[in-house]
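Exercise: predict the structure of this protein bound to glutathione.
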Amino acid sequence: MKLYYSPLACSLADHIALLEAGVPFEREAVDLKTKRTASGADFVAITRKGYVPVLVLDGGEILTENIAVLDWIASQYPALRVDGPLGRTRTLEALTYISTEIHRAFKPMWHQSTEDERAKASHSITKLLDLFAAHLAGDYLFGDTPGVADFYLFVMFLWARRFRVSVPKPLETLRIRLATRPAVRGAMEHEGLFQSLRDASQPDAG
Ligand SMILES: N[C@@H](CCC(=O)N[C@@H](CS)C(=O)NCC(=O)O)C(=O)O
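Solution:
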């Protein structure tokens, strides 16, 4: 199994999930500007979509789209699943909200945009995050162990930190809790995100 990722991209959620699962996998960074992998391969020849995450399964099948990739990882590794008859549906509900609402709302931060567009995006991201603040079921989103939606949300926290978007207080505790997990540290260190890791482990100033 091989994960194609880019540092601090949404593929970090999959990177963390695979480390949490404790399974052997290969990983290769992708330069999203040049569409070249670290070994010099043409990333567009691997996926015409040209974006991460990409997970290549042992049988050679190629999985794309973060919701699908994270759902597949959770389906394979029981420790990452949410219990109960609605567990998978609740996870998909959270993953879809993170992907289509929160991740999408960051677009003005990553791409060229005006100050006004960024300020509006910042305000709406805080509001979107607030929904999770009221719904923590324990130490993590769905109880006392983390699942794949926690890891995707954690990437959103890192982006919020980077772009100085305010994160509701209860979620700050979740961010710090996640940042201390060995799998999170391992994935971030491998991606060279040392400063982001230090930042994510600290309370917000003020
Ligand atoms: N629809 C995709 C979007 C993934 C995506 O936005 N990936 C970004 C990094 S977070 C990327 O690779 N962007 C490079 C590009 O679009 O050229 C998914 O949900 O997996």
